[in-house]
């Protein structure tokens, strides 16, 4: 399976990773940029960094990368400006010649300078406009106050004059003439300050003014109806227009400092009513002119941003490509003649022809006199792991890769995970009503996958969308197991025929199975609906699901051990076949394979034998007679043989392998001979996986190898018991899911139905729907998913899967968007 298959693009094979090769490219300087660009379009070559000892600033193309970084900064600035203005970049590409990078740099610089200047001018104009708007409000609100004060003063003056002209009475004040005859030159002249203060701090502003001047001020505040834009911060806020009257220069200085501390904007004001009207008119005219100028500037800025937006995606992609090309060129080493670049990298074997064609095309398009040289290097380094997946298989492969990336060309559990993972999930989630609900959600994602794949989704939605095909398989298998369990939201249906049982009398539902008599042929598929609701339902289903869990677990663990044989055969490791695969198969099947056989025999014969008793006394008293627990003739002899084989297989796994490894090591280094065994030991001697298949090890630590083999043996022996017990989670979660469904159906839906009240029924239906969706379709789905994940990672994959490889990350322009996100 490791050979090179014919054709450019062989059929996808997930069982083994693609055969890889280390290649060397010698590229002339004049065609280097175009060559790397074409290889990025191809996306099938992972470059090695040949300048790892150099810092980023010491590399050949550091200046070009800095230039690309500066262009990327300008493009990010343009994107921010477009988002603020409510524009989106156009996704359509304008047909035409490829833009030159130097021309693009000049164009982006011009656009940035123009946009910065327009923004600065716009901010100045907007600030002036906001200041004039506030100024106009001050003239209007303060003018109203002065006008009303002047009106009331005039009215009071007229009233006093009318009183003087009238007849004097005994109530007339004696000092009135003295008061009115005071010299006007001795009156105190009051000054005032006007402006606006934020409404939320207006009360604090008033208190501080009162305390600072010891009450020697008069403050008048008028709220502005609509929120206005502050000239300094540019934010909309509610404000009050204030007028502060004071006496003396010291009071004025205090008021000005308080205004500055509170962020109150002060504006000049005149008492003359005529001047007030003139100023309001003048300010209104200036506001109108500024508004026209601002609108014209915004229109011009929008046109500029629209022009940028039409080509933004093209420019952005071009800059990303250029930056990635120069990053890659910096990984190449410069030849001593400084006329060519030397590149090394990993590529799949099937991509050889495509890479050579890309090199030839680059040399021709760049008018290079010398073409690039392509040659395959022989190396002892471990190649990267590359699986070619599609949108269906990629999610299952990600489940495996989350545990660890497969070692180069070892058996990939992802192939079996496509079936076993959703099936084990469905064993725990078996209900065909819930399965249909999951399937409908998944079909929505699948039908709209083209539209949704181009949108930004939330974290949970994006995770669900990425695993849509996994959930689809999970839901299909859940429908299948739900039909086997005969459960539709915990309600049984006679879908495949009538029940084989009937009641002997009316009280049989409260009796055991004795109350049911068989009147027809056995129910053709799944659990007979008559079991549901009877007293013996739980014991019967518990027995069925527990035994089924053991059968499934033993089968999957056997599959894992068989895959270890496949790995040992593929890598030519005979030691692992004779001293790992064979004793492990014997040990597991002598105990739990035999238990599985007993389960099947008991089902087929209808025997009442106690399997617990058989397995316990197989160890405690293997020579005792079985009596009524005997399932077949010669069972005692078979058990003795199997027990003996299980005991022999433990030292078989432990002892021979370390001594044989030591002998092989001595033969290799004493005779300087080559042995066909590619790796000394896949599990214990992990260094061999990253070296030349076992070569180059100067020392062999026998004690270390023996301890590792001892740990491996103990782990397998104990794991055979614990892993089999771990599969009982299939039974436990299936039981929990079924019982929760029964509780929600009987204690919510049927209970609400029994009240014969439409309101209670509606409430019951709503509670039932939310409980079903929230608990059974979300929490139970997540729980079963995690348990299925654990069974695959721990119980299945630890039998054969090392997962110590590293992924193949080719240089590809198609991955630029993912890296940017």
TrEMBL record:
Topology term for the membrane: Multi-pass membrane protein
Q: Where in the cell is it found?
A: Membrane
Q: Which UniProt keywords apply?
A: Hydrogen ion transport, Ion transport, Membrane, Transmembrane, Transmembrane helix, Transport
For this chain, one GO molecular function annotation is: ATPase binding
Pfam families given for it? V_ATPase_I
Which spans are transmembrane here? Answer: 423-447, 468-485, 548-565, 577-601, 637-655, 758-779
Got a GO cellular component term for this one?
vacuolar proton-transporting V-type ATPase, V0 domain
Top-level taxonomic group: Eukaryota
GO biological process terms, semicolon-separated:
vacuolar acidification
Provide the function of this protein. Essential component of the vacuolar proton pump (V-ATPase), a multimeric enzyme that catalyzes the translocation of protons across the membranes. Required for assembly and activity of the V-ATPase.
Q: Which PANTHER family match?
A: V-TYPE PROTON ATPASE SUBUNIT A3, VACUOLAR PROTON ATPASES
Q: Which family does it belong to?
A: Belongs to the V-ATPase 116 kDa subunit family.
Q: Mind telling me what this protein is named?
A: V-type proton ATPase subunit a
């Amino acid at each position: 399976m490791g050979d090179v298959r014919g054709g450019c693009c062989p059929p996808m094979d997930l069982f083994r990773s693609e055969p890889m090769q280390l290649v060397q490219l010698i590229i002339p300087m004049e065609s280097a940029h175009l060559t790397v660009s074409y290889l990025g379009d191809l996306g099938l070559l992972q470059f090695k960094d040949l300048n790892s000892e150099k810092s980023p600033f010491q590399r050949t193309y550091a200046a070009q990368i800095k230039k690309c970084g500066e262009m990327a900064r300008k493009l990010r600035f343009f994107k921010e400006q477009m988002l603020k203005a409510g524009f989106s970049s156009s996704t359509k590409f304008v047909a035409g010649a490829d833009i030159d990078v130097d021309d693009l740099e000049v164009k982006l610089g011009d656009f940035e300078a123009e946009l910065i200047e327009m923004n600065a001018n716009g901010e100045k104009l907007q600030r002036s406009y906001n200041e004039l708007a506030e100024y106009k409000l001050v003239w209007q609100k303060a003018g109203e106050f002065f006008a009303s004060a002047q009106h009331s003063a005039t009215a009071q003056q007229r009233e006093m004059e009318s009183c003087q002209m009238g007849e004097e009475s005994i109530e007339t004040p004696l000092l009135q003439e003295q008061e009115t005859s005071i010299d006007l030159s001795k009156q105190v002249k009051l000054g005032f300050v006007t402006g606006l203060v934020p409404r939320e701090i207006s009360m604090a502003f008033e208190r501080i003014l009162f305390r600072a001047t010891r009450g020697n001020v008069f403050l008048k505040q008028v709220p502005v109806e609509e929120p206005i834009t502050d000239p300094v911060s540019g934010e909309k806020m509610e404000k009050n227009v204030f007028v502060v009257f004071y006496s003396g220069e010291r009071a004025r200085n205090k008021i000005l400092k308080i205004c500055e501390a509170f962020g109150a904007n002060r504006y000049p004001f005149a008492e003359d009513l005529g001047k007030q009207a003139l100023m309001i008119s003048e300010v209104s005219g200036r506001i109108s002119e500024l508004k026209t100028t601002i609108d014209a500037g915004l229109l011009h800025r929008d046109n500029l941003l629209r022009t940028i937006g039409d080509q933004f995606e093209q420019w952005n992609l071009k800059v990303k490509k250029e930056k990635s090309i120069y990053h890659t060129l910096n990984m190449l080493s410069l030849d001593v003649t400084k006329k060519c670049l030397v590149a090394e990298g990993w590529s799949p074997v099937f991509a050889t022809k495509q890479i050579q064609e890309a090199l030839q095309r680059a040399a021709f398009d760049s008018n290079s006199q010398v073409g690039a040289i392509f040659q395959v290097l022989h190396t002892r380094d471990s190649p990267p792991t590359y699986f070619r997946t599609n949108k269906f298989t990629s999610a299952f492969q990600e489940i495996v890769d989350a545990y660890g990336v497969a070692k180069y060309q070892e058996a990939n559990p992802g192939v079996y995970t496509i079936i076993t993972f959703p099936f084990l999930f469905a064993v725990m989630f078996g209900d065909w009503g819930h399965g249909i609900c999951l399937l409908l959600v998944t079909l929505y994602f699948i039908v709209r996958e083209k539209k949704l794949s181009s949108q930004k989704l939330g974290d949970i939605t994006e995770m669900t969308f990425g695993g849509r095909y996994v959930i689809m398989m999970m839901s299909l298998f859940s429908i299948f197991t739900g039909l086997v369990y005969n459960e539709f939201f915990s309600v049984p249906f006679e879908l495949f025929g009538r029940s084989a049982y009937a009641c002997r009398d009316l009280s049989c539902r409260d009796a055991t199975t004795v109350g049911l008599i068989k009147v027809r042929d056995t129910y053709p598929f799944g659990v007979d609906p008559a079991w549901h609701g009877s007293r013996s339902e739980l014991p019967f289903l518990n027995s069925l699901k527990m035994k089924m869990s053991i059968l499934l677990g033993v089968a999957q663990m056997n599959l894992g051990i068989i895959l270890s044989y496949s790995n040992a055969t593929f890598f030519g490791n005979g030691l692992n076949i004779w001293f790992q695969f064979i004793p492990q198969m014997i040990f597991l099947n002598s105990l739990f394979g035999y238990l599985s056989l007993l389960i099947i025999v008991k089902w087929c014969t209808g025997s009442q034998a106690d399997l617990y008793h058989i397995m316990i006394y197989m160890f405690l008293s293997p020579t005792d007679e079985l009596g009524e627990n005997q399932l077949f003739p010669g069972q005692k002899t078979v058990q003795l043989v199997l027990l003996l084989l299980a005991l022999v297989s433990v030292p078989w796994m432990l002892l021979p392998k370390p001594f044989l490894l030591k002998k092989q090591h001595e033969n290799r280094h004493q005779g300087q001979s080559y042995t066909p065994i590619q790796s000394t030991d896949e599990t214990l001697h992990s260094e061999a996986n990253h070296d030349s298949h076992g070569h180059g090890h100067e020392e062999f630590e026998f004690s270390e190898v023996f301890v590792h083999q001892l740990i491996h043996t103990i782990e397998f022996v104990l794991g055979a018991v614990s892993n089999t017990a771990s599969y009982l989670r299939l039974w436990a979660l299936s039981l929990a899911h079924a019982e929760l469904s029964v509780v929600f159906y009987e204690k919510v839906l049927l209970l609400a139905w029994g009240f014969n009240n439409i309101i209670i029924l509606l409430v019951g239906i709503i509670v039932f729907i939310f409980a079903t969706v929230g608990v059974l379709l979300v929490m139970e789905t997540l729980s079963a998913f995690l348990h299925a994940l654990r069974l695959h990672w721990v119980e299945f994959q630890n039998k054969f899967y090392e997962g110590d490889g590293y992924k193949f990350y080719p240089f590809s322009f198609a991955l630029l968007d993912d890296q940017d996100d």
